[in-house]
Amino acid sequence: MQITCFTEDLHDVTLHFQIMKFSKQIYVWVGCNTSKFGLLYAAATTRPDNRVSVTSILGGTSDNTGSSMARRLVLRTGLNIVLACIIPKDSPMLEAAVERKLVEKLKGLGYVRPTAREAS
């Protein structure tokens, strides 16, 4: 298991990230100005058509920030994703910046599979 922790200031908000890589899944925690756990989502591809399914393990379903991010991370990595996310609601710019930073870090760690454009 590999563990990576880092902090970033995005849109005047300090965000803390923790990434844990297991053999077939990635656990990600993103927190903003707090060490609370936040909402917890699990996402994975499902058979027979390899669509991505997401479920809320902890917290409500009214906040789709983590749900959408977990779904896209499965598509980018090809791995199951467990995502705990506590960032301000109603801030799509911050949400996008968090996801970009997370994907950038996952690429740097070698966890993101190359896209068709990157492979050629």
| Spatial arrangement of strands, main beta sheet | 1-2-3-6-4-5
Which H/E pattern describes the elements? EEEEEHEHH
Name the quaternary structure: single chain
Low-confidence stretches: none
Cα Rg: 14 Å
**Approximate strand percentage:** 35-45%
- The helical percent reads 25-40%
Please identify the structural class as seen in this structure.
alpha+beta
Number of helices: 3
Given the C-alpha coordinates, what overall shape results?
Answer: globular
Distance between the amino and carboxyl termini: 31 Å
- Main β sheet profile: 6 strands, mixed
Average of pLDDT: 88
Write down how many β-strands occur, each being a DSSP E stretch of 2 or more residues: 6
Question: How is this structure best described in words?
Answer:
Helix 1 runs parallel beside helix 2. Helix content is 28%, strand content 41%. A hairpin with a 4-residue loop joins strand 4 and strand 5. The chain has a domain of 56 residues. A six-stranded mixed sheet has the order 1-2-3-6-4-5. The longest helix is centred in the last third of the chain and has 17 residues.
